[in-house]
C-alpha cells in the first residue's frame, strides 16, 4: 500500500550561514582584490562645469526632496489614495490638536496652529512619505512641564471680589498666565527648531543611534503614565494645581485623590461615556480594518456630538462643566519670540529636540522599510528643524510625528506627502472659518481622546517578557528608562536613561583606544583633530617622551653603578690573589659581589622594558571622513611618527575608496605610514591589534 506524504510538512533543515574571512588590510585589498596586475587602468575625464552643475542640482534635490518626486507624481495612481488619506488624517488632526494643546499648557487654538504650519512645511522638506507631522502627546507634555515651571499659577494669583457675595478672595489671572505660557512655548519651539536645524546641517543625524529602541519605548511608556495621570482632573472635573519636576506624577495623583470628593458628576459621566465609545471604535477599526475602506473617525464624532450637546444644554452654565472657551477665527500675524527667556530653556530645548527627532526618524524608517524607499536622517533633522523654527514665528509649539495619525495616513491609502498637505488644509479651513463652533466643547472630551490614544503606548509593557527571554541588558535599559522618567520627570529621566544605556555598551579593549570624529581633516581643523585625539584618548606623546627620558636616565645611572661595582669586585679579586687566599674563597667573594649588584640592575631593566603607558594602540575611525588635504595628511603623518617614537602604534580604519585615492595622491603611504596600517573596518583593526605582540620599539632601548 502506498503511503502519501504531505510535501508541505517535509521541510529541509535550515541552511547554515557562516561568515569567516581573514583580517584585511589596505595593502592586501589594493594589490589582490581591487587592482590585480592584469587589470588595465582607465581614465575618466569630467568637465568642471558639468561637475559643478550636477553638484548644485544634487544639493537642491537633497534640501528640497519634493523636487525629486513631484514632477513624476502619478496622478491617476496616487491622487485618490492621497485625497482619502489626507481627509482622514486631517479629521483626526483636529481633535488631537485641541487636546494636546492642553498638555502643552496653552489655549486649544494653538494646537490647531501647530497642526497646520509644520505639516505644510514638512511636505516640501521631509523625506518620509507616510508619517503624520503635528502635535504629539509626549512632546506636548514636555513643553507643558516647562511652561508650568516657568509660569506657575502662584505667580498670577490676584485678589478680586467674588461676584456672588462681594467678598475678596484669591483668583488666578488665567489670561495673563496663558499669554506667558504661550510665550514660553513659542521660544522653546524656536530653540528646538534651531538646534535640530543646526544638527542637520552639521550632518548629526547619527545621534538617533544613541536612543536605542528599548530606551525610547521605556521612555515613551513613562511619558504615557505622566500624560494619563495628568488627564484625570479634566476627566473628573477636579480643580488641582499642575506639577512638574521630580515626583510630579506622584504629586498629581495625590492631588486628584485628595480632591476626589469635588468631582463634577456631569463631567465625569460625559468623559467616561466618551472613553467607552472611543475604545469601542478603536476596537472595531482594528478588528475590521481589512473590510473598512477608511477607519471610523471616532474622535471627530465625539467632538461634534459633545459640542452640540454642550451648546444645547448649556453645560458650562448649568452644570459647571469646563469647556474649551474662546477660539479666535483666523491666523495670527508673525511675531518675534521673547528671546530673553532663552537662558532658562537651553537644557529643555536640547532634550525636546532629540526626543522629537528620534521618534520621527524611528517611525519614518519603519514605513520606509515596509514600502521600499529610504529616508535621510540628516534631511529629516533639517525638515523638523525648519518646521519648528519657522512655525514658531506664527505662535506654534514643538511638533514631531504621531504614531496613531501616521498609521491612519498609511492604512487609508496615503502614498506621498500630498496626504499631509491635504490634512493641513483641513485644519486651515477650521481655523479660518469654523473654529468658533468648537468653543462649547467640554474639556473632558479632549481628556478622553488623549487617554484612549495612549492605549498603544501602554501595550509596550508587553516588551518586558520578550526582552527577558532575549536580552537582559536591553530589558534593564527599558526598566531604567521607565522608572527614571516616571520618578524624575521626562527631562532628567531621559538624561539618566541615556547615561545608563551608554554605560552598558562601553566595553573597552585593553590597551586599545578607538577615536571617532565626525568631520573631515583639512587645514582649518587638522590641529583641532590632533589635539582632540590626545585629549580624548589621554595619550600625549610629549608626556610619554618625558617618561621615556626619565627611564633612560635612570638606566644610565644604574649602568654606571653596576660598572663601579664591577671595578670594586676586580680590585677585591686582586687583593685576594695577593694574599694567596683560596680560589674557592675568591669565587665566593666575586660571586657574592656581583650577586649584590645584579638584582637591582635586572629589576631596572625590566622596569624600563615595561610599556610607557596603559595604551599601546590607537585606531582612527575614518568612516565619516570624506576629505583630507595636504595639511591634514602631513599633520596625521607627523602625529603617527610622534606616537611611534613612544611605542604607541596607530592604525586607520573605515576609509572610503575615494579617500584612499586622495591619500595615495598626497603620497601619504611613505615613511612611517604603510598600507598595512589601513583596515577596511574597525573590527579588522581591533582583531589585528589583539593578535599583534606588544613589544617596545628600537627607539625605546637605544
TrEMBL record:
It comes from the Eukaryota. Residues 511-689 form the STAS domain. Keywords: Membrane, Transmembrane, Transmembrane helix. It holds the Pfam family STAS. CDD domains: STAS_SulP_like_sulfate_transporter. The chain crosses the membrane at residues 98-125, 131-148, 184-209, 267-284, 296-313, 350-369, 418-438, 445-462, 477-507. SUPFAM superfamilies: SpoIIaa-like. It is found in: Membrane. One of its GO terms (molecular function) is secondary active sulfate transmembrane transporter activity. The keyword Chloroplast does not apply. The keyword Glycoprotein does not apply. It is a multi-pass membrane protein. One of its GO terms (cellular component) is membrane. InterPro entries: S04_transporter_CS, SLC26A/SulP_dom, SLC26A/SulP_fam, STAS_dom, STAS_dom_sf. PANTHER family: SULFATE TRANSPORTER (PTHR11814). This is STAS domain-containing protein.
Amino acid at each position: 500500500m502506498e503511503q502519501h506524504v504531505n510535501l508541505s510538512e517535509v521541510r529541509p533543515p535550515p541552511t547554515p550561514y557562516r561568515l569567516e574571512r581573514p583580517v584585511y588590510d589596505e595593502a592586501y585589498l589594493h594589490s589582490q582584490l581591487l587592482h590585480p596586475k592584469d587589470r588595465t587602468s582607465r581614465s575618466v575625464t569630467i568637465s568642471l562645469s558639468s561637475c559643478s552643475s550636477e553638484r548644485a542640482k544634487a544639493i537642491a534635490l537633497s534640501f528640497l526632496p519634493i523636487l525629486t518626486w513631484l514632477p513624476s507624481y502619478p496622478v491617476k495612481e496616487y491622487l485618490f489614495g492621497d485625497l482619502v488619506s489626507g481627509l482622514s488624517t486631517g479629521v483626526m488632526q483636529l481633535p488631537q490638536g485641541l487636546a494636546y494643546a492642553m498638555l502643552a499648557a496653552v489655549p486649544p487654538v494653538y494646537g490647531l496652529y501647530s497642526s497646520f504650519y509644520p505639516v505644510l512645511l514638512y511636505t516640501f522638506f521631509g523625506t518620509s512619505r507616510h508619517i503624520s507631522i503635528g502635535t504629539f502627546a509626549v512632546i506636548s507634555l514636555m513643553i507643558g512641564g516647562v511652561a508650568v515651571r516657568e509660569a506657575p499659577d502662584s505667580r498670577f494669583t490676584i485678589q478680586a471680589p467674588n461676584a456672588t457675595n462681594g467678598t475678596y478672595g484669591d483668583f488666578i489671572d488665567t489670561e495673563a498666565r496663558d499669554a506667558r505660557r504661550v510665550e514660553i512655548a513659542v521660544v522653546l519651539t524656536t530653540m528646538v527648531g534651531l538646534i535640530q536645524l543646526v544638527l542637520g546641517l552639521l550632518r548629526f543625524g547619527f545621534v538617533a543611534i544613541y536612543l536605542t529602541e528599548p530606551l525610547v519605548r521605556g521612555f515613551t511608556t513613562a511619558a504615557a503614565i505622566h500624560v494619563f495621570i495628568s488627564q484625570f482632573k479634566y476627566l473628573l472635573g477636579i480643580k488641582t494645581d499642575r506639577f512638574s519636576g521630580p515626583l510630579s506624577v506622584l504629586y498629581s495623583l495625590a492631588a486628584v485623590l485628595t480632591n476626589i470628593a469635588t468631582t463634577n458628576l456631569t463631567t465625569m459621566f460625559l468623559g467616561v461615556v466618551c472613553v467607552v465609545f472611543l475604545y469601542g471604535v478603536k476596537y472595531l477599526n482594528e478588528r475590521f480594518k481589512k473590510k473598512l475602506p477608511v477607519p471610523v473617525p471616532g474622535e471627530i464624532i465625539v467632538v461634534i456630538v459633545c459640542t452640540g450637546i454642550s451648546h444645547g444644554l448649556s453645560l458650562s452654565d448649568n452644570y459647571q462643566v469646563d469647556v474649551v472657551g474662546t477660539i479666535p477665527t483666523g491666523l495670527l500675524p508673525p511675531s518675534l519670540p521673547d528671546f530673553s527667556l532663552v537662558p532658562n530653556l537651553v537644557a529643555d530645548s536640547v532634550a525636546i529636540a532629540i526626543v522629537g527627532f528620534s521618534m520621527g526618524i524611528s517611525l519614518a524608517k519603519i514605513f520606509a522599510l515596509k514600502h521600499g524607499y529610504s529616508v535621510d536622517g540628516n534631511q529629516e533633522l533639517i525638515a523638523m528643524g525648519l518646521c519648528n523654527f519657522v512655525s514658531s514665528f506664527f505662535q506654534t509649539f514643538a511638533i514631531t510625528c504621531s504614531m496613531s495619525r501616521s498609521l491612519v495616513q498609511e492604512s487609508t491609502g496615503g502614498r506621498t506627502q500630498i496626504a499631509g498637505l491635504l490634512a493641513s488644509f483641513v485644519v486651515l479651513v477650521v481655523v479660518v472659518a469654523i473654529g468658533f463652533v468648537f468653543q462649547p466643547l467640554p474639556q473632558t472630551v479632549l481628556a478622553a481622546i488623549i487617554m484612549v490614544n495612549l492605549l498603544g503606548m501602554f501595550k509596550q509593557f508587553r516588551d518586558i517578557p520578550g526582552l527577558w527571554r532575549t536580552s537582559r541588558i536591553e530589558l534593564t535599559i527599558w526598566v531604567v528608562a521607565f522608572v527614571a522618567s516616571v520618578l524624575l520627570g521626562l527631562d532628567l529621566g531621559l538624561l539618566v536613561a541615556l547615561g545608563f544605556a551608554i554605560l552598558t555598551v562601553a566595553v573597552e579593549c585593553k590597551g586599545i583606544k578607538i577615536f571617532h570624529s565626525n568631520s573631515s581633516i583639512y587645514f582649518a581643523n587638522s590641529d583641532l583633530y590632533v589635539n582632540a585625539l590626545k585629549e580624548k584618548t589621554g595619550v600625549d606623546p610629549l608626556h610619554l617622551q618625558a617618561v621615556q627620558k626619565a627611564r633612560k636616565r635612570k638606566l644610565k645611572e644604574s649602568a654606571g653603578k653596576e660598572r663601579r661595582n664591577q671595578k670594586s669586585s676586580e680590585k677585591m679579586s686582586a687583593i685576594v690573589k695577593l694574599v694567596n687566599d683560596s680560589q674557592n674563597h675568591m669565587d665566593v667573594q666575586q660571586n657574592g659581589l656581583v650577586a649584590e649588584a645584579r638584582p637591582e640592575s635586572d629589576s631596572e631593566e625590566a622596569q624600563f622594558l615595561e610599556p610607557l603607558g596603559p595604551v599601546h594602540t590607537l585606531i582612527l575611525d575614518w568612516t565619516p571622513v570624506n576629505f583630507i588635504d595636504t595639511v591634514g595628511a602631513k599633520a596625521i603623518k607627523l602625529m603617527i611618527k610622534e606616537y611611534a617614537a613612544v611605542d604607541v602604534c596607530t592604525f586607520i580604519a573605515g576609509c572610503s575608496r575615494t579617500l584612499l585615492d586622495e591619500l595615495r595622491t598626497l603620497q601619504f603611504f611613505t615613511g612611517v605610514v604603510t598600507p598595512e596600517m589601513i583596515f577596511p573596518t574597525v573590527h579588522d583593526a581591533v582583531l589585528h591589534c589583539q593578535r599583534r605582540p606588544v613589544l617596545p620599539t628600537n627607539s625605546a632601548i637605544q
